[in-house]
Write a structure and sequence with these properties.
Elements: H1 2-18, E1 23-31, E2 37-47, E3 54-60, H2 72-79, E4 95-102, E5 111-113, E6 119-128, E7 133-143, E8 153-154, E9 158-161, E10 167-168, E11 192-199, E12 205-208, E13 212-214, E14 217-222, E15 228-231, E16 237-242, E17 245-251, H3 257-278, E18 284-287, H4 289-295, E19 303-305, E20 308-310, H5 315-335, H6 340-362, H7 396-406, H8 422-444, H9 446-459, H10 468-477, H11 483-489, E21 496-504, E22 507-514, E23 522-528, E24 533-538, E25 546-552, E26 556-561, E27 576-578, E28 588-592, E29 602-613, E30 620-627, E31 636-645, E32 650-661, E33 668-683, E34 686-699, E35 707-720, H12 724-728, E36 734-746, E37 751-761, E38 765-779, E39 782-796, E40 805-806, E41 847-848, E42 851-862, E43 865-875, E44 882-894, E45 898-906, E46 909-910, E47 922-925, H13 929-936
Helix pairs in contact: 3-5, 5-6, 6-8, 7-8, 8-9
């Protein structure tokens, strides 16, 4: 009887879907009382919509992505600095427990699995001809994963189901390659008619993007993947019926009363606005908690620190901004079928285009930092001093692109989604593409662009599309948008430059340069002293890179190209000229106190006070720093810091100038050349002078990758004042150092690795040094670290131990280590530990002038407590080889930045028994803000 009912129900679905040869899936799913397992009986009608006959069918079994370490999903989560799934307990993972598949003749078919078990290959007794269908009966049981890993799975609050049912792979009908689950919200079971019936525990409620025909019974056609949320509480929905919009928005999570009230006001506005742009609003929308989290408005959250909280935007504004993007993306997902891996940029770019239009209309003057610039401290508004306080919210699209591009970590728009860094998903796939759509719409007219978009979506309803066809239609409508296709294939490095202007009679002749032959139009804006603005579109062609345009002179005060970041240029700083005053045909200079978001209208120089404690010799260093480095990286950088040494009463300081080449498409990410100089004190009344010429090469890396590689070379010249004792010890007052090195680091979460090799030399010696480091996180926040060091003098004719390898201390003869006391031999400053050379924590006396090898190990014991052990061999000239070792306890107060070492047993004996044990305790103190920032941003880029 059950089979008869299934056949009747399935027949109705097949009749509805067969006209267009769409797949049909019928599912009976029973959830266990503990909400951990699903028992599924499934019938699948699969159409071969490819042009080839199929000997097998590939089914996606993506719940297996959760089942063990080493899957693509686990690795991707580790890239995102999330190790929860890697360390998941057996009862937390998801997996397929059993499966049986039969064909339409009720015969069991053979199944082969991929290595990861995420792909099931069903062998067919007879080839499935193109255009024909086959019916398969599946019976399987799965264990649901914990919801914390991806937002899908089971939790104490509810159960979210998506990508768990076994479905055919529509994007790969020829079964050529495997597909793995990466948790990137890609489409897999679109163009399908669904019938899903649930058997749930008592008092359970279920919500879905499928229409509910009866209690726990869902039926309908979807262009997206089915989603279900099962909970003990009924989640809310909001019905909108205004004008020509009749839509219900169902939420897969609870709403606070005020949030629901705000949504009831804003959702009709959002739907009307979106319909004006794309022409389509579905009758039903389902918003899951994960979708809300992934698609909300980035940057409008409250600032929270300890007990301090500051609200950038009102609750109503946050709801408005968040849900405009959420609703827009959901509608685009429901109306456009495309392969996210290759064509992610289309829907992401359209979402940003809609946001830009919305912000222009309703938030045109709203600031990027919201109400934060109005925050008062002692009656003052200090943030008003920053240019960031005047940056508009709508500028975030151009600024975000500019930030990642300035580091040469941006990726091509057409890069596959799975290899995009998290930051580039936002900056490139969404913001850059959306800006380009908006720029094209501005040039051709927003109504023309919107009509073209509406027609394109309407004629491709229920069809898988290639968005390049949209770009083709766009270029046919307006040939000046043809450059968009090229932007998919290569990184955007287009730059327009206001070269100069010349006034003649009543006209201004303005010379504009561009660095490309692409016929990209440019928007020219003029402003008078009365703040009257005029806009001109300047056409450029592919024959020349210079364009001269003539406009009425009027009373023009300032000339601007592509103002307000409306086009994603590689550099905005040359888009401004003044036509009057001292800075005619140039840009103004602005002095600033604190590093800021750059204002491209000015040449900014940052002058900031500096108070620093150097060591017991210079004591406090009082001065100021002059530099041109803002929050965004620049190719040409300078920094000069003159200071007054309170310890010596003398002027000291440092300075550096560098230039970086950042090729867009090369194995080299950056090539930097620079010079630097410094003058400080390294002992009482003894100064050193250092001059350097350096070059660094950072090799190209996949922005999702944790691997970095680089080569460095430098020449350093040193002069040191010497005391009578140092002169008696034949110390060096002048010397030159050459060094060349290679470094490799892999900062992945579980298996962190690094390796470096370098050579250094001068007229008296040549040494070769190698260092390897490995850190294994064997349990959550529990790590084992191993460092191996080897140093060898190929030639050593030095007259003292200045350039020797250190055992427990380092000789800072190149003044490259951040020592609090350069020459301290006693006291707290002398107890500072630098992990270099031998790396021994116990004060083992002596240095090494021939060769040394050492191994440094430490491992977690409990919370911040570690144990460490060091061992090694070294040999000095005319002396036998020595073996040394030590061990002790390490307390990680701030990991990698502030750590304290308590020696226990070593070659010296049982150290706690020594009377001077307090002086044997060591500490690591690294005050490097850049290192902290780099550690914090891992997983983004």
């Amino acid at each position: 009887m059950r089979k008869i009912i299934i056949c009747l129900i399935l027949f109705l679905g097949i009749v509805q879907a067969s006209a267009q040869k769409k797949d049909s899936i019928y599912i009976e799913a029973k959830l266990s009382s503990d909400n951990k397992t699903l028992e599924i009986k499934q019938e699948l009608v699969y159409y071969n919509n490819s042009e080839k006959d199929l000997k097998s069918i590939k089914l996606l079994n993506w719940v297996s992505a959760y089942q063990k370490r080493g899957t693509s999903l686990v690795y991707r989560k580790l890239e995102d600095r999330n190790n929860d799934l890697h360390f998941a307990k057996p009862e937390q993972v998801g997996k397929l427990l059993e499966i049986n598949i039969k064909d339409s003749d009720d015969q069991t078919v053979s199944i082969s699995k991929s290595t990861s078990e995420e792909n099931l290959f069903v062998s067919l007794n007879e080839p499935l001809l193109s255009g024909k269908s086959i019916r398969l009966q599946l019976q399987y049981t799965m264990q649901l994963p914990d919801k914390t890993f991806t937002g899908y799975g089971t939790s104490d609050k509810d159960i979210a189901l998506k990508y768990f049912f076994i479905v055919p792979d529509h994007f790969d009908p020829d079964n050529i390659s495997e597909r793995n689950y990466h948790d990137i919200e890609e489409s897999i079971s679109f163009n399908t008619h669904w019938i899903v019936k649930f058997d749930l525990p008592t008092n359970s409620f279920i919500e879905s993007n499928l229409p509910e025909i009866q209690h726990n019974y869902f039926k309908g056609y979807l262009d997206s993947d089915p989603e279900f949320v099962i909970s003990q509480n009924k989640y809310p929905s909001i019905k909108i019926n205004t004008g020509d919009i009749d839509t219900e928005v169902q939420f897969g999570y609870a709403l606070k009363p005020q949030e629901k009230e705000n949504l009831e006001f804003y959702l009709p506005l959002h739907l009307k606005f979106i319909k004006e742009k794309i022409g389509y609003i579905p009758g039903r929308l389902f918003i899951s908690e994960k979708f809300r989290r992934d698609e909300d408005f980035f940057g409008n959250n409250d600032i929270s620190f300890w007990k301090f909280k500051f609200q950038l935007f009102s609750d109503a504004e946050k709801v408005d901004l968040d849900y405009l993007g959420i609703i827009a993306k959901k509608i685009l997902d429901e109306s456009i079928i495309t392969d996210k891996q290759d064509n992610h940029w289309f829907k992401n770019g359209l979402k940003s285009y809609i946001e830009i239009q919305y912000l222009k209309k309703f938030y045109g003057e709203t600031k990027l930092l919201g109400k934060l610039p109005e925050a008062t401290i002692f009656g003052m508004k200090p943030l008003k001093l920053f240019h960031a306080s005047s940056v508009k919210l709508i500028d975030r699209y151009g600024l975000t692109y500019q930030y990642i591009m300035s580091q040469n970590l941006d990726q091509k728009i057409g890069e596959k989604f799975a290899v995009l860094s998290n930051f580039n998903v936002m900056a490139i796939s969404s913001f850059e593409t959306g800006t380009l759509f908006n720029y094209s719409a501005d040039k051709m007219g927003y109504e023309n662009f919107n009509n073209l978009l509406k027609n394109y979506i309407a004629k491709n309803t229920d069809k898988q599309i290639d968005p390049k066809d949209f770009l083709k239609e766009l270029s046919e409508k307006d040939s000046r948008t043809s450059y968009l296709t090229d932007f998919l294939k290569q990184k955007n490095r287009v730059n327009f430059k206001l070269q100069k202007f010349k006034k003649q009679d009543d006209s201004l002749h303005i010379k504009i340069n561009k660095n490309t032959l692409s016929p990209i139009p440019v928007k020219l804006e003029t402003r008078t002293t009365e703040d009257e603005k005029k806009e001109y579109w300047v056409e450029t062609d592919g024959d020349e890179m210079t364009k001269t345009v003539s406009i009425p002179a009027l009373d023009i005060y300032k000339i601007t190209l592509n103002n307000d970041y409306i086009f994603p240029e590689s550099k905005y700083r040359d888009n401004f000229l003044y036509s009057k005053g001292l800075f005619s045909n140039a840009k103004k200079i602005k002095l600033k106190l604190i590093k800021d978001i750059p204002n491209p209208e000015f040449n900014e120089i940052y002058i900031s006070p500096r108070i620093r404690f150097n060591n017991t010799y210079d004591k406090f260093l009082l001065g100021f720093n002059i530099k041109n480095q803002s929050f965004f990286d620049q190719k040409f950088l300078y920094s000069f810091t003159p200071t007054y040494s309170t310890g010596t009463g003398k002027l000291t300081g440092s300075g550096a100038v560098s230039y970086s080449f950042l090729p867009a498409e090369s194995i080299i990410r950056s090539l930097t050349f620079g010079v630097s100089a410094s003058y400080f004190h390294y002992d009482y009344d003894l100064a050193y002078r250092k001059g350097s010429i350096f070059s660094n090469i950072n090799f190209r890396k996949n922005p999702r990758s944790t691997v970095s590689r680089g080569v460095s070379a430098s020449y350093n010249y040193f002069e040191r004042d010497l005391s009578p004792l140092r002169i008696a010890n034949r110390d060096y007052d002048k010397y030159n150092l050459w060094s060349v090195g290679y470094g490799y680091t892999d900062s992945q979460m579980i298996h962190e690795k690094s390796f470096s090799i370098s050579t250094q030399g001068m007229e008296d010696f040549n040494k070769i040094t190698a260092e390897g480091f490995y850190r294994w996180e064997f349990a959550p926040r529990q790590k084992l670290s191993i460092r191996v060091f080897a140093g060898y003098f190929a030639r050593n004719e030095t007259r003292n131990n200045t350039f020797n390898y250190g055992i427990s201390r380092v000789s800072n003869y190149s003044f490259s280590y951040n020592l609090l006391g350069e020459s301290a031999n006693s006291g707290l400053l002398s107890q500072q530990f630098i992990l270099a050379d031998g790396g021994f924590k116990s004060f083992i006396p002596g240095t090494v002038n021939q060769w040394i090898t050492s191994v440094n190990v430490d491992t977690s014991v409990w919370k911040i407590f570690h144990i460490y052990a060091d061992g090694g061999l070294y040999k000095n000239k005319n002396n036998p080889t020595q073996f040394i070792w030590d061990s002790g306890i390490k307390i990680k107060i701030v990991p990698d930045f502030l750590e304290v070492y308590f020696p226990i047993q070593s070659s010296l004996g049982f150290e706690p028994a020594f009377k001077d044990y307090g002086r044997r305790i060591r500490y690591t103190l690294i005050l490097n803000l850049g290192s902290i920032i780099n550690a914090a941003r891992r997983g983004w880029y």
